Predict the structure.
Amino acid sequence: MRTSAAVRLLGAALAVTATVAVALPEAHAAPPGVWRYLPGTLPGTPFLTVGHNADGRLDVFAENGSDLYHQWQLPAGGWSGWEPLGSSHTWGFAVASEADGRLRLFQTTATELRTIAQDAPNGSWGSWTTLHTANGGGAVVAGRDPAGRLHVFSASDDAHQLLQTDELAPNGAWGASAVTLAYPVNSVLQLKMAANADGRPEVFSTDIFSGTAQHRWQWPDGTWSDWASLGHPRGKPGSTEITSRADGTLELYQLNEAGQLWSTAQVAPNGGWDLTWHLHTVGAPPPGCIWYSIDAARDANGQTEFYAAAASSEKGGWLKASVSRLREAPGAPGSWAVATTFDPNIADVDFFTSALDGTGRLWFFTVARRTSPIMVGFQRQSSPGVW
């Protein structure tokens, strides 16, 4: 989960190709509603993201600002325990899948965008290589196009530039990075990436101070559009999310500092955008709190869920409250009800993420509060679409 409350705003990478559904051993799971913990502990509180191995097994990545770790589901069941992937001061990180199924991780630091990949699908990892040098790090997102090439967008906050770096061929060498967008001094960008219905990637950039959203998409011939404005709703954004609706259209959400949820969407699959922002109705947060950040997931039945963090403000500082799971009310588009509020003694409102596994079940991962040393807890659906 990436929140405006965090000092570093990291871009979460959204997979732009579907995960292959395969049968995984039941030992990978925990009973629904019961907290389990990934084996091992971590030094420092990490941000989390999740990738999918070629055989559908999940791989959880954690970075605490200076060190990267990961652990993965084992073929016979259970989890591997944490393994290091290198040390470097991290500003942003993202994971994507190569055309041949290998996972590839991207990291922005104060001086470079670098990458590391598996040596073979489902296999061990190679060495870090630099894709370009940068003047200050920032958010990063990555995804694959229908031709199998990866595309990476990375922010350089000190230079106020957003760069694009493209694979020249599937699983192949990388081209030179190019500046695609200049943004104002003192601004910070949130980045999101999603796939259109036909698989073409589209990237979204939101200025967290003005709330202005822009997007850039791949044309059917493989070239890219210029940046175009999507406008902005009322208030400064606390966080943004992009989802794919059941009809194949994309929808961009902003949760503002007042706890209001707004969205704008494509008017047709692979098409243009409404350019009008619509206010949603969201269930009440805990007493004395507002919704202040969200993370989105889409389950195997096509139902979008939000994992929403609520917090209260007291004496100028945030008091962290809890994380809830929100679902859209049946027959009432734009109306979101609180389905579950996770135990506030476990779910941390700044450090959580979710993922759909190869069996079609959603998992929710969170840094476990009040554990020392640091551990990562999880819950999962008992069957596709059912918690």
